[in-house]
Each structure stands twice: as C-alpha cells, then as structure tokens.
Amino acid sequence: MNLPLIQSKIARACKAAGRNTDAASLIAVSKNQTPDTIRLMLQAGQRRFGENRIQDAMEKWPPLRAEFPDVELHFIGQLQSNKAKEAVSLFDVIHTLDRVSLAEALHKEMQKQNRTLPCFIQINTGDEPQKGGIAPADLENFYRFCQEETDLKITGLMCIPPAEEVPDMHFALLHKLGADLGLPGLSMGMSADFEIAIRYGATYVRIGSVLFDVMKN
Ligand SMILES: *Cc1c(COP(=O)(O)O)cnc(C)c1O
Fold first, then answer.
1. CA distances from 170 to 87, 149, 198, 202 (A)
2. What is the CA 16 to chain-centroid distance, rounded?
3. pTM of the full structure
4. Ligand 1: which of 2, 3, 54, 76 to mutate, judged by most atoms within 8 Å of the beta carbon?
C-alpha cells in the first residue's frame, strides 16, 4: 500500500518548497480501480478521490459512499454538458470547466439542485488540439463571463501538461495565470511530476498509478 509513502513525499516536497507540509492535498485518482481496491484506500484513511468518467463513477461510488459518508469526489475528466446533472449530484468539486456552454449547464444544474461545487478552470497550457481547456489567452474573458453571467464558484486553475514535455513551464504558467486573477487553487501534478508541481504551487495533486500500483501486488 503506497498511501503513507506518497503522503510523506507530498509533505516533503511542500517543505522543500518552503510551504506548509499540508499545502498540497492528495486526490487519489481511482478511475481504473475496482471498488474492492478503492475500499482498501478508504480503510487506510484516504477520503479525497478523483474520477474521469461520469458513468463509471455513478456505478462505483454510491455504495462506497454509503459506507464512507465523508468521501469527497473530484471530477477530473472531460465533461459533456448533457452530463452536468449527474456530475453536480455526485461530485463535490469540478476540475475541468473549459467552455461557455459547460459553464452555463453547470450553473443551471447547481441552481436546480441547490448545490455549489467549487470549480477549477482547465487551461490548455500546451495548446494541444485534442485536449480540453481554455487557451491561456482566452482565460481572462472566460473568467469574466463566469463571474458576470453565472453563480459558479471559481476557486482555481487546472492543467494537464503535454505528455512529452518537461512540465515545469506549464506549471509555472498555471501559477502565473492564477496569481494574475487572484485565484488560489492550482490543480496540477500527477504520478510522474507531482513533486515538481508542488514546487510551482500546486494545491491539489492528482495521483493514480504510483498510489494504487503496489496495492495490486
Ligand atoms: C488519470 C489522471 C490522473 C492520474 O494520473 P497518474 O499518472 O496515474 O497519476 C491525473 N489527472 C487526470 C486528469 C487524469 O485523467
């Protein structure tokens, strides 16, 4: 079980960056895990989880949540507007707000369900055509739209750097964009690069494979 190891690596990276040891929170990305494996992680004390497919999460999480009511679910996948209803009812935080139509759909659903989920705006820091996210140059306009036309609670920015690139400049860019808008939250860093992301100010790291791998053995 890798949870204590990853937790201590996160705390150490925070300290090395001159930040509080709890400045970056772990999201256990359970998208590829069975309920039995997830339950082991819950029994070890982890409560914050990330999923990237609505349908999957709808099947896995309600029973687990009945056992562990204080679970906190983060949506980290591409979100279709027609799944906004399910996303708002099941999840607690959305990390992938990336377009006007989705902002409108989430706003409407949150009003209807009387729920306020903190949202991260996803930024396509590498300008990759196949990836979701607002282009850095369009962020200010999009943020203003969310502030003026919706009740969405925007708490920060999120990115997934291009797989083939050194992530540093992407994390640095996200940090700068967040600081410019006064947004404190930064959702960045995965298994391969979470310690670097913490150096650039990550407040959430999203970790799947290195956290769960050892548990299979
Ligand atoms: C799968 C996924 C992760 C976790 O990736 P690992 O490399 O397994 O840690 C983080 N963020 C997003 C958006 C993902 O889809």
1. 27, 29, 13, 12
2. 23
3. 0.96
4. 76
